[in-house]
Design brief:
The complex is a heteropentamer, with one copy of chain A (324 residues), one copy of chain B (288 residues), one copy of chain C (263 residues) and two copies of chain D (348 residues).
Chain A: E1 3-7, H1 16-24, E2 28-32, H2 36-46, E3 53-57, H3 58-66, E4 101-113, H4 124-128, E5 138-140, H5 144-155, H6 164-178, E6 181-184, H7 189-195, E7 200-204, H8 205-214, E8 218-221, E9 228-236, H9 243-253, H10 256-266, H11 273-277, H12 281-286, H13 294-297, E10 301-302, H14 310-322
Parallel strand pairs in A: 1-2, 1-3, 5-6, 5-7, 9-10
Antiparallel strand pairs in A: 3-9, 4-7, 4-8, 4-9
Helix pairs in contact in A: 5-6, 6-14, 7-8
Chain C: H1 8-32, H2 49-56, H3 58-91, H4 97-108, H5 111-125, H6 131-154, H7 160-167, H8 172-201, H9 204-209, H10 219-225, H11 234-261
Chain D: E1 7-18, E2 21-32, E3 36-40, H1 47-55, E4 62-67, E5 70-71, E6 82-85, H2 97-107, H3 112-125, H4 141-153, E7 159-163, H5 171-187, E8 191-195, H6 199-205, E9 208-213, E10 216-221, H7 223-228, H8 233-238, E11 243-249, E12 254-257, E13 260-263, E14 269-275, E15 280-283, E16 290-299, E17 303-310, E18 317-322, E19 334-339, E20 344-347
Parallel strand pairs in D: 3-8, 3-9, 6-7, 7-8
Antiparallel strand pairs in D: 1-2, 1-4, 4-5, 9-10, 11-12, 11-14, 12-13, 14-20, 15-19, 16-17, 16-19, 17-18
Helix pairs in contact in D: 2-3, 2-4
Classes of the chains: A alpha/beta (324), B mainly alpha (288), C mainly alpha (263), D alpha+beta (348).
The structure holds adenosine-5'-triphosphate (2 copies), spermidine and magnesium ion (2 copies).
């Protein structure tokens, strides 16, 4: 194959290879990774060998770049960059899309069963200090950064907070919250809502949409304290020997029609103006968070690489997990 | 057997070579990262430091280790208690059907860990099959919270590693001379004491091997605690995993890993000694 | 053999209970393969759509094929090496702590350490990775497990039959095949089943040591990568088929075996 | 000698088959209290199987076993007040000699010091003291056999079943052990049932003995009875050495074969005369009624056996003479012999 | 008898220790081609260890072993043209009797039909034909032993090492097997080294025999030599039955003990007189020089052993008399006896 691309399973059109071949005559091979972490580990251990293009979330793209593994984006080869919302070209981790191109974006908030939760939850504290009826019926995302973010947002801190005293406060809050939690879950939380096992869960917007698709009573809300802004990006690896083809591939993805596929089929917002505008209105009626304006979205703070402060995060998360 | 003193060495050579070339060398390479600093963007900064080992000494990690060891140990004990009678029954079945029974004991594990674990979630959750069954049997109380508890984690671990213990114990039971048990009965020991004093010591190597499997696989497991324990319990393997992948702190991961490997190997050597002693294994030189 | 000492009944009850425990989640798993909805954890009606979907999902089928190839090769190699290592260790005059530690190490090294180590190592060697590197890597821990099972059996092995064989003119090699191996067979089979089962289900090491292409994706890699968007009952359908086919194949071969032995 | 007449063990019509193989066939036998009973028979005749049924390891297909009048079939082996010494030893490989011996006493929950004392005593009488801390695999064949014997002896059960207990021991040690067994019979009052291939052992030690063949009981009686008055040709041939001469009993009540006539009480018709080698008297040619020639001489330590060819039988007759008187004879010599009618048996 | 004089096997200063235990101690011994050599000694004296060194399973700590003049130390067991029958049988548990027997021949890559023929033949001579398809666990003790024997025999090696080959067999079968071994010695020309506890077996079958004790060789010689002229007190006592009378040799060259005098050539000083039970003649009280009284009578089948208390020794003397002449004597009877000076030995 001309290109090896690693992405999450089901995150692109299944026939992407045929379409791309029809359009460019180039062959691609799509492989899957389960998590950002795994593919990052693999890229770092191997120096990126074997892969041409990878899909990773923004902090990881930042790391790839920091490690010198990311190839600069050849703007001239990717004219479809023009399709992006302006907000998507000035993102703090990579202003001007120099080494990464955003693929999907969204927020993190609360996903809940409106028929089982009284009123509309509007604060992170609804999750972290639930009313009695919700005790034992909430879940939180398990990954370090999102787990911490919920506490940081509730306290009004930055999601990239580095001040040890503040982090200590967050820790206390989260350890307390653990007592009322059904589980930490970042893979099946929406099906817990569907089955009624949980009533209020910490969720990514797009993933909440899968629950909404199964049960209309499920709703998504971004608490008043705000959310983080997450972005899944496309990065070309420096070690790639097929950089031209890789740029062609990015350009192909950014084509309005192709990029719209992601929004339509995986129910994640895409930062592609042309694509979003081509969507059926019915979609945003069924899944209201699809309609969130880019301007509102980018108000949320991006997760950034923490550098050496990561040590404090991993220790705090370990303490939370070990607490009982 | 001294008729060819070099034979044992020759027999062990391919396996030893494989392990040295493909495990020891690569692992030493990675574990040596423990002596260096984490780079700004993760990775390794080749500046010598002992800080990572200092961090390992943090009591937090000892606490996590002890806690997950407790969970793993419970799973190990439970698995042995279930596996032993099963292995015993298989070894007493007609010779022809023994391989079939063994095969059916492992067959479930040729599916996938994740979907097996999901199946347990379906069984155990508050809206799950067992609770529904209870309800249809007329149970009206609060649904039982069986999932996301330590017991659920232990159940999952026992379930997934049970066949390994059955296999290990079966392998020592399969050709045990039945006259030894008869001799014990004859000398006045009932079935229980015969089991404790003769059968068990003679099959202890198998029990120990099986126990080691459950323990090391459990303590290194992270899917089961995440799914059945709702992520509220952490196993040691997870800690190392997180350093390499989530925290992107390879040097600390290497230090934790090295500490973990060393501790476990020392424990295992002690355990092997104890087993050898209790099962009256022949002494090295005398047997030759 | 004798009714005074061993009644068959308790054994049957034990087997019934243990197999009940082993197959209870499997029954659920199979049931879910006929689940109309795609959710892995709740039931919403009967359907065979996932079987249809599976048959057209070449990715899953290829991954299943790869897993089988990896597991078979890793099992064969590790069973041979592990058994020989066990024999070597148990016939040695002196126990060596270094050797013991070496044999334990693959079991206690956290998967991720081994995975990272192997990938780093293979890339430094400039090795092209693929199914073969997964096999090589799986053999590392598989052989430790096989060795452990076989050694347990060897602790009370009567080596005089090995001597008898040598005495009757058999070389070490022939003795192994004709005497040691058949007598150890139950434990070797146990070790091989263990290795196969471990390999079939192993994820992280396979992920790291696989090549970059589709051609070396194994089933666990495929299934784990589906987590983010939900694992569909296709996987349950696949597991159902795998177990069904294996069980049927075994039962048929046993039946043929018995037919052959009757006349 | 030590036998009183109340049976401690009664075996009633007991049978056992392994699939198509009938190992024990309708055996009925009483063992008297405190007697020393020997079980003899060719290899594979069912001796071990019979003992295993008594000990409770095989359940009979037929018949029942009564101990002191009570049917012990429902009792598991550990509840039966008898012990078996296994033909294949069945030593616990993970225990030292001392531990092997202590095991059975620990099961009786005896005090430690008592166990120690009895084990020490038994090890001393079986010459095992110096091996107390060895594992079975570090012992020689005969040492292992003694451990197996000692392990059964130390229990001092009512009935002790010994399956070939002294076969791996040399003559001296065997004699020492025989004395020990006899001593225990007398002092401790144990009833012994012993399987042995050593006829001398059976003849010397047993109060009574039984001969089994193909799972069936052929004869039960005191050793002298069996030796002197074997029930049939098989027993006659099995115990000791016997010369058989085929011939006919005439109407005159005389047994006759080619060149030989012996007074014998029997019915007229074809018959076999059985005579033991020590009951043939030899002399110089012509002195005695039957003439023959020496075809072979075997040295048996304390005496010689001459193989003498006569016209009376196809196989040479064996004649046993003291070694001291053997110097005179050599292969090829002619001689004459005489059979004492009082010391031979007729099978018809 | 069949022994020619060139040694096929030369054992030179061989020794073997298991840790602190010396099992074989500086043994030097020549085995001649085609001879039947018996190894005797008390339990644990090192017989099995010696055979295992010959077969190549233990390497000597000292000395060397030459087969036909060549040092075989470097040869692994399968390259040595000798075979060992294991005392513990070591049958292959997963093979039938036929397979156990065929195994060794298959190793020689003989033709199938040839293997079949020889296995059938050997099974027939060892009475195993009917068990051809059984597994060892389905056999009785004696049947297993015969399989072990047959498995070694069927190979027809140059030298056959048999460790207690007939111990589990009854007398008749043992005699049959003895004949078979002798036949193979003569017809096939095999050299046999056999360990046995059965003295009669050794005396009857062996061309020469060796007595081991505590790993050391005490005497090597023809059976008559060893029996009649034991090298020391231990051998005298070990082989056969021997009465020992402690006394003194006077300056007159006469051995004297309380109430007894025997002409004996020896140095003056304390000495022990050894005399076999069959070499003591008895008569009515007063007839013969030494007087005594019967304290016990043992029945040994073909003869009786009287235990006679005399003033000459603390332990009663054993006197063997033919059973036919025994009816006259009973316990308590007084008698007189005489020791033939030509048939006793003096140990000083
Ligand atoms: N593995 C061992 N470790 C320690 N001592 C041993 C070992 N094997 C044998 N021995 C000792 O060496 C001595 C000689 O043993 P061997 O088996 O040669 O005796 P043997 O003459 O064959 O006796 P038996 O007639 O009882 O079979 C014995 O005292 C025995 O206890
Ligand atoms: N498990 C079995 N399956 C089939 N046949 C058996 C089994 N066990 C014993 N036999 C047969 O039963 C018969 C009696 O065996 P048993 O062991 O009682 O003989 P034995 O008299 O003790 O002989 P030996 O003197 O040789 O020890 C033998 O022919 C034997 O082959
Ligand atoms: N703790 C390291 C064990 C290595 C073997 N991993 C096998 C995983 C099977 N699920
Ligand atoms: Mg027997
Ligand atoms: Mg021996």
């Amino acid at each position: 194959a001309d290109l090896v691309i690693s992405n999450w399973d089901g995150y692109m059109a299944p026939d992407i290879a045929e379409q791309f071949k029809a359009a460019t005559g180039l062959e691609i091979e799509v492989v899957n990774h389960a998590t950002n972490e795994e593919v990052m580990g693999k890229l770092m251990a191997s120096g990126g060998k074997g892969y041409d293009v990878v899909f990773v979330s923004s902090p990881f793209a930042e790391i790839l770049n920091g490690q010198g593994l990311a190839e600069p984006i050849d703007k001239a080869a990717v004219p479809n960059l023009d399709n992006l919302y302006p907000e998507a070209t000035t993102l703090a981790y990579d202003p001007g899309n120099t080494f990464s191109v955003p693929y999907t974006w969204g927020s993190t908030g609360l996903c809940y069963r409106s028929d089982l939760v009284e009123g509309t939850p509007d604060s992170w504290l609804n999750l972290l200090q639930p009313v009695d009826a919700l005790k034992g019926k909430t879940t939180m995302l398990a990954t370090d950064r999102w787990l911490m973010a919920a506490g940081e947002l509730a306290k009004g801190f930055s999601v990239n907070e580095k001040d040890p005293a503040r982090l200590e406060e967050v820790k206390t809050l989260l350890i307390e919250a653990k007592k009322t939690l059904l589980a930490y879950d970042d893979t099946t939380f929406y099906s817990k809502l569907v089955s009624g096992e949980a009533s209020l869960v910490h969720a990514w917007d797009g993933w909440c949409n899968y629950g909404i698709g199964e049960n209309k009573d499920i709703k998504f809300v971004v608490p008043k304290e705000g959310s983080d802004l997450w972005i899944d990006t496309i990065v070309v690896l420096k070690s790639s020997e097929k950089k031209d083809a890789a740029m062609k591939f990015i350009n192909f993805i950014l084509d309005a029609k192709n990029h719209a596929w992601a929004a339509q089929n995986i129910l994640y917002k895409v930062p592609n103006k042309a694509a979003m505008e081509s969507l059926d209105k019915a979609l945003s009626e069924q899944y209201p968070n699809m309609a969130m304006a880019p301007a509102d979205l980018v108000k949320y703070e991006l997760l950034r690489d923490l550098g050496t402060a990561q040590k404090d995060y991993s220790r705090i998360v370990s303490e939370i997990k070990a607490a009982n | 057997m001294s008729f060819n003193a070099t034979r044992p060495t020759l027999l062990a050579a391919p396996g030893v070579a494989w392990l040295v070339a493909l495990m020891v060398v690569p692992c030493l390479l990675v574990l040596s990262y423990a002596f260096f600093e984490r780079g700004v963007w993760g990775g390794v900064e080749y500046t010598f430091t002992l800080e990572n080992f200092a961090r390992v000494a943090d009591p937090l990690y000892a606490k996590i280790f002890l806690n997950s060891a407790r969970i793993a140990l419970t799973a190990t004990v439970v698995a042995i208690l279930i596996a032993y009678p099963a292995a015993y029954a298989i070894s007493r079945a007609p010779r022809m059907s023994q391989p079939i029974l063994l095969f059916f004991a492992v067959l479930p594990f040729w599916s996938n860990y994740l979907i097996r674990t999901y199946a347990w979630i379906v069984l155990l959750n508050r809206e799950g099959l067992i609770n529904n069954l209870l309800r249809s049997l007329g149970y009206t109380g609060e649904p039982l919270s069986m999932l996301y508890t330590e017991s659920a984690v232990i159940t999952g671990l026992v379930y997934n590693y049970l066949p390994f213990v059955i296999l290990a114990i079966y392998s020592t039971l399969s050709r045990l001379n039945p006259e030894l048990m008869e001799a014990s009965r004859d000398l006045g020991a009932g079935p229980v004491r015969t089991f404790l004093r003769v059968t068990l010591p003679l099959t202890l190597p198998g029990v120990a091997a099986g126990g080691v499997f459950v323990f090391v696989l459990s303590i290194g497991n992270f899917v089961t605690p995440a799914l059945l324990g709702g992520g509220r319990f952490q196993m040691v393997g997870n800690l190392v995993y997180d350093q390499f992948l989530t925290a992107n702190d390879w040097p600390f991961g290497a230090a934790l890993g090295a500490a973990l490997i060393l501790t476990m190997i020392v424990l295992l050597l002690l355990q092997a000694r104890a087993t050898a002693h209790a099962s009256g294994e022949r002494k090295g030189e005398a047997a030759q | 053999m004798n009714a005074t000492l061993s009644s068959k009944l308790p054994g049957r009850i034990v087997l019934l209970l243990v197999f009940g425990f082993l197959y209870l989640p499997i029954a659920v798993l199979v049931l879910l393969s006929f689940n109309a909805s795609g959710l892995p954890t709740s039931w919403s009606g009967f359907s065979t759509r996932w079987y249809g979907a599976l048959l057209s999902n070449t990715d899953i089928l290829r991954a299943a094929g790869n897993t089988f190839i990896v597991a078979v090769f890793a099992t064969v190699i590790s069973t041979v090496l592990g058994t020989l290592l066990a024999l070597g260790m148990e016939t040695r005059r002196r126990k060596s702590n270094g050797l013991e530690a070496l044999a334990f190490a693959p079991m206690v090294i956290p998967d991720i350490v081994l995975a990272v180590a192997l990938l780093t190592f293979f890339s430094r060697l400039g090795l092209t990775m693929g199914l073969h590197t997964i096999v090589i890597s799986h053999v590392i821990f598989d052989l430790a497990f096989v060795c452990s099972v076989v050694r347990a059996r060897l602790k009370h092995f009567d080596f005089s039959i090995v001597e008898a064989s040598r005495d009757l003119g058999a070389s070490g090699w022939t003795t192994f095949w004709r005497v040691t191996f058949p007598v150890l067979l139950p434990s070797i089979v146990a070790g091989a089943l263990l290795a196969f089962t471990l390999s079939v289900d192993e994820f992280i090491i396979a992920f790291f040591t696989a090549g970059a292409g589709r051609s070396s994706i194994t089933l666990p890699m495929q299934i784990y990568s589906m987590i983010r968007f939900g694992i569909t009952p296709e996987v349950n359908a696949l597991a159902t088929i795998v177990m069904g086919v294996s069980a049927t194949a075994l039962l048929i071969s046993q039946w043929l075996n018995r037919q052959q032995q009757v006349p | 000698m030590n036998a009183s007449s109340n049976p401690i063990l009664r075996i009633e019509g007991v049978g056992k088959a392994f699939g198509p193989v009938t190992a024990v066939d309708d055996v009925t036998l009483d063992i008297r209290e405190n007697e020393f009973f020997a079980l003899l028979g060719p290899s594979g005749c069912g001796k071990t199987t019979l003992l295993r049924m008594l000990a409770g390891f095989e359940s009979p297909n037929a018949g029942r076993i009564l101990l002191e009048g009570k049917d012990i079939s429902p009792l598991p082996p550990e509840k039966r007040p008898l012990n078996l010494m296994f033909q294949s030893y069945a030593l616990f490989p993970h225990m030292t000699v001392r531990q092997n011996l202590s095991y059975g006493l620990e099961m009786e929950r005896l005090a430690r010091t008592e166990i120690h004392r009895r084990v020490d005593e038994t090890m001393a009488t079986t010459d095992l003291t110096q091996f107390a801390d060895r594992k079975p695999e570090q012992l020689s064949g005969g040492q292992k056999q003694r451990v197996a014997l000692a392990r059964a002896l130390v229990k001092r059960p009512k009935v002790l079943l010994l399956d070939e207990p002294l076969g791996a021991l040399d003559k001296k040690l065997r004699e020492k052990m025989q004395l020990e067994l006899k001593r225990m019979q007398n002092e401790v009052g144990i009833t012994f049932i012993i399987v042995t291939h050593d006829q001398e052992e059976a003849l010397v030690m047993a109060d009574r003995m039984a001969i089994l063949k193909d799972g069936r009981l052929l004869q039960v009686g005191a050793p002298e009875d069996v030796y002197e008055r074997p029930a049939d040709r098989f027993v006659a041939n099995f115990i000791g050495v016997m010369n058989f001469i085929d011939g006919k009993v005439g109407v005159d009540g005389l047994f006759a074969a080619e060149g030989l006539q012996v007074k014998a009480s029997g019915n007229a018709g074809s018959a076999t005369l059985a005579v033991r080698p020590e009951n043939i008297v030899i002399g110089p040619p012509g002195d005695l009624p039957v003439s023959g020639a020496i075809v072979d001489i075997a040295y048996h330590g304390l005496d010689r056996v001459l193989h003498v060819k006569t016209t009376a039988s196809a196989t040479p007759l064996q004649v046993r003479i003291p070694a001291s008187g053997a110097g005179n004879w050599k292969i090829g010599d002619a001689l004459s012999l005489k059979i004492d009618p009082a010391r031979c048996r007729l099978f018809q």
